[in-house]
Amino acid sequence: MASEPKKVKFKLSDKIVGTVDLRRILRELQTIDDFLYQANLRTPGTATAAPKTTKLLEHLFETNNAQILDKRSRANMLAILKRLDAKAPVMHISFAVEATPAFSEKIVAWIRQNIHSYALVNLGLQPTVIVGCNVRTTNKVFDMSLRKHFANSKYILNDKIKKMADSEAKNG
Amino acid sequence: MSDLLSTILIVGSLVSATLAFIWVSLRLGGGKKPDEKDTVLSAADAAVDHIFNDEFREELRNRGRLHFEKIIGENAMFLQQDLRLTTSQINEYMKQEITKTLQEAFKKYEESITDAKEVALKSIQQTQSSVEEQRQVLEEQLKKAVEVEKQQLLSRFENNMADIVNHYVLSAIGNEISLDDQLEYILAELERNKTDIVADIESGA
C-alpha cells in the first residue's frame, strides 16, 4: 500500500509583508525561472550571468523546504505566489511613523497567526494617528488610535473631573 | 463869662438910659412946634454921639473882639472835644457796623458753604449709589458671563476631551513613543477587534 505524499502546507514568510513584497518576490522568481529555462536551451560552456537571488526569496524557499533549482518547486512556488497575489486577503495598516522591518514582521506574524495565514499587510503613514494605528480591511475601517480609545473612555475622565469638582466645592 | 455878663449889663443899661431919655424928650415935646422937636432930636443925637464916642466904640470893639476870640476858642475846644467824641463814636459805630456786616457776610458765606456742602454731599451720595448700582449690575453680568463661559468651556472640554488628552499626551511624551513601545497596545487593539476583522475578511469583497 503506497502511502500518500505528505502535503506540506505553504508557509508565507513573515518577511513578505504586503503586496509589494509579494510581487517583487514573484518577479524575482519569474526571472530566475526564465533564466534557468533559457540556460538549459543554451550550448553548454557558454558564459552566462546568473541573476542573484535575494535573501527574502531564499528564506521563502527554506521555510517551505523547497529547492530553488528544482523546476517543479519553482513552478509550484510561482503558482502559489500568483494565487496569493490574486486571492490573498489584503489589510492596510497606517501608523504615525514609518514602521521598521522588525516591527512590521511582528505585526504580520501576529496577523497571520491570529487572523489569516496568508494575509498581506500594506503599511502606510497616517500622522494624525499619533499613537496606535488605523486598520482598513475590505469593507471596514478600524480606528485603533489612542484618540479613539480616549473618546471611548471619556466617561471615566468625566466622572473623575466631576468628583474633583464636587470635592472642591465642598471644601470651599 | 462874668466879663461878658457885665459888658452886656453895661451895654444894656446904656441903651435903656438912651431910650428913656428919648422917650422923655418925645413926651415933653409932643405939644411943641416942629422946630423944637428937631432941636430935641439933634440934642439926643449929640448926647448919643457924646456917650458913644470913638474911644468908647473902640473899647467896645476890642472887648467884643476879645470876647469873640474867647468864645471862638472855647467853642473850638468844645468843637474839638465833640469832634473827638464824635470820631470815637463814629469809629465805634463803624467797628460795630463793619463787624456786623462782616458777621452777616460770614454768616451768608457759611450758609452758602453749608448749602454747597450739602449739595456736594447729596451729589456724592447719588453718585455713590449710582456707582454701587452699576457695580452690582456689572457684577451680575460678569457672573453670568463667567458662568456661561465656564459652561461653554466645560462642554467644549467634554466634547473634545479625547483630542485634549491626546494632545496633552503628545505634548508630554511627544516623539518618545516609538512603534516598538506601542506594539503591545496595537496588538491588544487588534486582539479586541479580531473577530470583526476575521469576519470582514471571510465575507470577502
What's the SSE blueprint?
The complex is a heterodimer of chains A (172) and B (205).
Chain A: H1 19-41, H2 55-63, H3 71-87, E1 90-95, H4 101-114, E2 120-125, E3 132-136, E4 141-145, H5 146-152, H6 154-171
Helix pairs in contact in A: 1-3
Chain B: H1 2-28, H2 34-51, H3 54-159, H4 161-173, H5 179-192, H6 194-203
Account of the 3D structure:
The complex is a heterodimer of chains A (172) and B (205). With 172 residues, chain A is of the alpha+beta class. Chain A is 51% helix and 13% strand. Chain A contains six helices and four strands; from the N terminus they run αααβαβββαα. Chain A has helices spanning 19-41, 55-63, 71-87, 101-114, 146-152, 154-171; strands spanning 90-95, 120-125, 132-136, 141-145. Chain A has a four-stranded mixed sheet with strand order 2-1-3-4. In chain A, helix 4 (101-114) links the parallel strand 1 (90-95) and strand 2 (120-125). In chain A, helix 1 packs antiparallel against helix 3. Chain A is rod-shaped, with a radius of gyration of 25 Å. Chain A starts with 18 loop residues before the first helix and ends with a helix. The model of chain A is unreliable at 1-6 (pLDDT under 50). With 205 residues, chain B is an all-alpha fold. Helix content of chain B is 92%, strand content 0%. Chain B contains six helices and no strands. In chain B, helix 1 (2-28) packs antiparallel against helix 2 (34-51). The longest helix of chain B has 106 residues, at 54-159. Chain B is rod-shaped. The mean pLDDT of chain B is 84. At the A-B interface, helix 4, strand 3, helix 5 and helix 6 of A face helix 4, helix 5 and helix 6 of B.
